[in-house]
Design brief:
Helix content is 70%, strand content 3%. It is mainly α.
Amino acid sequence: MRKRKPMSLERTSLIDSIVSELKSRVLSGELKDGDTLGSQEQLAKSLGVSRASLREALNRLSLMGIIEAKQGIGTFVKSATPLDIIQQISPLLVMDKATAEELLVARLHIESAVAAMAAKHATEEHLRKMRLVLESMEDDFSSGDAGSFIALDVQFHLLVSETAGNRVLSTMVQMMREMLRRFVYRIVSTYPEYLPNAINYHKQIYEAIGRHDAENARKHMEDHISSLISLTRQGIGWQP
């Protein structure tokens, strides 16, 4: 690892600053999968921090899955995608009504466009997979299996994004769904009346995609996510 000037530690938390600095080096590609961080003494000196602060920062990065400590060998960088990092910090993100609503508005604009794209690119195999997920969602609703229903809901939306054929948009959909995971669970747990509507929205989206009707695929996805925004504004599902 090439030498750098000690970083500025003007932020309130020294440990947060160390985490942010090392994480940015990984995301920028300066530190790559398999690279060693060197000894803690060397790294602490290059960053201009104490070994105690560095150890705590490394523990956090390890929990995030960004680095891996191998006893007797050293500390190494692990492959970390943006989604990996989001999965680690997502429990901290949706903490209030305003944040949940903003994420849902972002979902509305992105996923409605994704649904329209999916309608243009859908194959029989894509449609078969969506149909199987919808059938399983109906079975889980009948049996009252909320946990499995939520997993299938996520799977359906990821299938739509996969069908759209754009990896960047697909990753964005995954990231937003992960950030909203707790919120969706609370909706289903506290407001089971929502489930029949959710199934109906998914059917409409699926049918529009099956007809290669981009405009209605977009509209039904907008209606679906708008219904979640409405529930949020009523105070349902967002409480920590």
